[in-house]
Amino acid sequence: MLYQGSCHCGKIKFEVQAPKALEADYCNCSVCSKGGFLHLIVPLSKFRLLSGKESISTYRFNSGMAKHTFCSNCGIKPFYTPRSNPDGIDINVNCLDSKPETVNVTDFDGKNWEKHAHTLVHKSIDS
């Protein structure tokens, strides 16, 4: 399936290729839980930015590895480059404009990221 997505104001628009039934992760770390991010990690080859490159701002914290991108106009974070999968991209399922039929959500213990990050690595492998 090809899903369309955007930030709240619509300046950033993207599309992502993903299965009809999505497997998403809910992370309990401070940045994800406060921001309401629902994770869909995919290979970078499955993602295309359609518009808004000039509206993207980046926030980094702690190790500085993750590139938390957000819209400089509305503040919404539609996708980012995750520390666990720097070769992929992490889509916020809540920012998909074309909604999937099914979203299966798994809890991820991001508060203890170091112990659990290895369980995410396979998600950015291109199949």
Topology:
Layout: E1 2-6, E2 13-17, E3 21-27, H1 30-35, E4 38-43, E5 47-51, E6 56-59, E7 67-71, E8 79-81, E9 88-92, E10 102-108, H2 113-116
Parallel strand pairs: 3-10
Antiparallel strand pairs: 1-2, 2-5, 3-4, 4-9, 6-7, 7-8, 8-9
What gross morphology would you assign? Answer: globular
CATH class: Mainly Beta
Largest sheet: 7 strands, mixed
Structural class: mainly beta
- Poorly predicted runs: none
Give the CA-CA distance, first to last residue. Answer: 15 Å
Mean pLDDT: 92
Strands ordered across the widest β-sheet: 6-7-8-9-4-3-10
The helix content is under 10%
The total strand number stands at: 10
CATH architecture: Beta Complex
- Provide the gyration radius in Å: 13 Å
- Count of distinct structural domains: 1
Q: Strand-residue fraction?
A: 35-45%
State the CATH topology.
Metal Binding Protein, Guanine Nucleotide Exchange Factor, Chain A
Task: Determine the number of helices (DSSP H or I, runs of at least 4 residues).
Answer: 2
Order of helices and strands: EEEHEEEEEEEH
Polypeptide structure, described:
- The structure is a single chain.
- The chain is mainly β.
- The chain has a single domain (2-121), classed as Metal Binding Protein, Guanine Nucleotide Exchange Factor, Chain A, CATH 2.170.150.
- It has helices at 30-35, 113-116, and strands at residues 2-6, 13-17, 21-27, 38-43, 47-51, 56-59, 67-71, 79-81, 88-92, 102-108.
- The two termini are 15 Å apart.
- The mean pLDDT is 92.
